[in-house]
Amino acid sequence: MRILGIDPGYAIVGYGVIEYNLGKFCVLGCGAITTEAHKPFPERLEDIYNDLSFIIDKYKPDALSIERLYFNTNTTTAIDVAQARGVIVLAAQNKRLEVNEYTPLQVKQSVTGYGRAEKRQVMEMVKSLLRLNEVPKPDDTADALALAVCHAHYSASSYSKILKEAKR
After folding, report:
1. Does the chain have fewer CB atoms within 10 Å around its N or its C terminus?
2. 113, burial (CB in 10 Å: exposed 0-12, middle 13-18, buried 19+)
């Protein structure tokens, strides 16, 4: 299974593409889509849409894994991130890509085995699980890879349940 993990944002959108097969991971590509702060916001959203559409076409993932948003004290930032996230989901939908959402707690639990893990622990586990020489930068890229790993674990678990049910 080929999975595109996305850490949504409007200044930086982290992405990571992994191949997951029989419990083994292979990183196919990762990085960040960045937008220029001086650009009008609608143009920044267009840049995100276009760049993500290119990434989807390039890697041809089977699924997209994205962080479910939660609102904190800065609602203005949250609304802007939500708009960028909407553009990301639209790009995936237009490419007929399955979209899967995970909370930060689910990602931490899946990657480290502990839902309250610190960010540094998650990053180190991403590095270890994906056999990388260093933690990917920027942090948004490492977060995107963690989201891809999370979906791999959840989909493998769901697939296992389906297989067990089919054997009965």
Report:
1. C
2. exposed
Residue type at 106 in one-letter notation: Q
What is the per-residue DSSP string for 123-140?
HHHHHHHTT-SS--SSHH
Query: Could you say which of 51, 140, 143, 165 is catalytic?
Result: 140
Nearest-angstrom CA–CA distance, 133 and 153: 22
Check if 7 is active-site: yes
Q: Which of 19, 51, 62, 67 is catalytic?
A: 67
Per-residue pLDDT of the chain (168 residues; tens, 9 = 90+): 999 999 999 999 999 999 999 889 999 999 999 999 999 999 999 999 999 999 999 999 999 999 998 766 667 788 999 999 999 999 999 999 999 999 999 999 999 999 999 999 999 999 999 999 999 999 999 999 999 999 999 988 765 555 446 555
Which residue out of 7, 47, 51, 143 is catalytically annotated?
7
